[in-house]
Amino acid sequence: MKKSPDKEDPFLIAYGIYGAVGFQLATSVVGGVLGGQWLDKRWGTSPWLTLVGLVLGAVAGFYNLIKILNWKDNRTQ
C-alpha cells in the first residue's frame, strides 16, 4: 500500500536536510577555493588568496550548516 503524498516521511525529510547540508558545505568550500585560485592567477598572489578563499568558504559552509540544523531543531519541537 502506498503512502499518500501529504503524509510526511521522517526518513526522507532527514535525508533531504542532511543531503542539503553536505552539498552546501562542499559547494561553499569548493567555491571559495576556486575563487581564491582565480584571484591568485589574476593578481599573482599565490597561494594566499586560495587559502583565504578556503577559510571563507569553510566559514560560510559551517554557518549554513549551523543555520539549517537549528532550523531543523526548531521545526521538530
Folded structure, characterized:
- The protein has 77 residues and is mainly α.
- Helix content is 82%, strand content 0%.
- Helix 1 (10-43) runs antiparallel to helix 2.
- The longest helix has 34 residues, at 10-43.
- It is elongated, with a radius of gyration of 18 Å.
- The chain starts with 9 loop residues before the first helix and ends with a helix.
Query: Overall pLDDT, averaged?
Result: 88
Query: Biggest β-sheet: count, sense, barrel?
Result: none
Helix/strand/pairing category? mainly alpha
Q: What is the string of helix and strand elements?
A: HH
Shape: elongated
Low-confidence stretches: none
Strand tally is 0
Query: Which radius of gyration do the C-alpha atoms yield?
Result: 18 Å
Question: How much strand content do the residues show?
Answer: under 5%
Quickly count the helices: 2
Note the gap between the termini: 30 Å
Helix coverage percent of residues? over 70%
Provide the fold topology.
Layout: H1 10-43, H2 48-76
In short:
With about 80 residues, the protein is mainly alpha-helical. It is built from 2 helices and no strands.
Main attributes?
77 residues; mainly alpha; 2 helices; 82% helix; elongated
